[in-house]
Amino acid sequence: MPESLTFMMGNHPAPLPGDLRYCKNHMWCRPGADGVHTFGFTAYAVRLMQDVYFLEWRVEPGLVTAKQEIGFIETQKATSGLYAPLAGRVVRFNAALLDDPGTINVDGYGGGWLFQFAGDVSATLDVDAYHAHLAAGWEATQRMIKGQINADTD
């Protein structure tokens, strides 16, 4: 099993478990031996969003295409759609998050999982490749964050 890594977001660590796979839209994937894989937000995504306080699923379990909107999320920082990271079949959503989406903030790699999915996950990244993806985009992300902070204080 690959070693876990930590991506430093300034002074804030974003742990990246080595046993997971990762998507460029900042979701993690826990491959299932039965072909059903569990997905959730990475610590990096949770840190950027800050407090998640509303979640809604826009589709029923079933077939989805890559980048299809499957839900909607409101956080302290943004309101946006949630998109399927891959094509396949959503087996089930984590219904408990509808009552308490804050679980994503405190247990993102555990009880804060988003959905279970059946499909080919070979296009996902290992922990090293995801860490490199974060590092490659970090400078642009910092500029975006600073722009939002400056806009909030105008």
Explain this structure to me?
The chain has 154 residues and is of the alpha+beta class. It is built from four helices and eleven strands. The strands form three sheets. It has a six-stranded antiparallel sheet. The chain is globular.
- The whole-angstrom Rg is 15 Å
Distance between the termini: 48 Å
Largest sheet: 6 strands, antiparallel
% residues in beta strands: 25-35%
CATH topology: OB fold (Dihydrolipoamide Acetyltransferase, E2P)
- Number of helical regions: 4
CATH homologous group name: RNA polymerase II/Efflux pump adaptor protein, barrel-sandwich hybrid domain
- Let me know the average pLDDT: 90
| Low-pLDDT stretches | none
Structural class: alpha+beta
- Element-by-element helix/strand order: EEEEEHEEEEEHHEH
- Please state the overall shape, judged from the principal axes of the Cα atoms: globular
Q: Assign the CATH class.
A: Mainly Beta
The total of beta strands comes to: 11
Strand order of the largest sheet: 3-4-5-11-10-7
User: How helix-rich are the residues, as a percent range?
Assistant: 25-40%
Query: Which architecture does the CATH hierarchy give at level 2?
Result: Beta Barrel
* Count of discrete domains: 1
Properties at a glance:
single chain; 154 residues; alpha+beta; OB fold (Dihydrolipoamide Acetyltransferase, E2P); 11 strands
Short description:
Helices cover 27% and strands 34% of the residues.
Secondary structure blueprint with pairings:
Layout (H helix, E strand, L loop, with lengths): L4 E5 L2 E5 L4 E2 L4 E4 L5 E6 L1 H7 L2 E6 L4 E3 L4 E7 L3 E5 L4 E6 L2 H4 L3 H4 L8 E4 L8 H27 L1
Antiparallel strand pairs: 1-2, 3-4, 4-5, 5-11, 6-8, 7-10, 8-9, 10-11
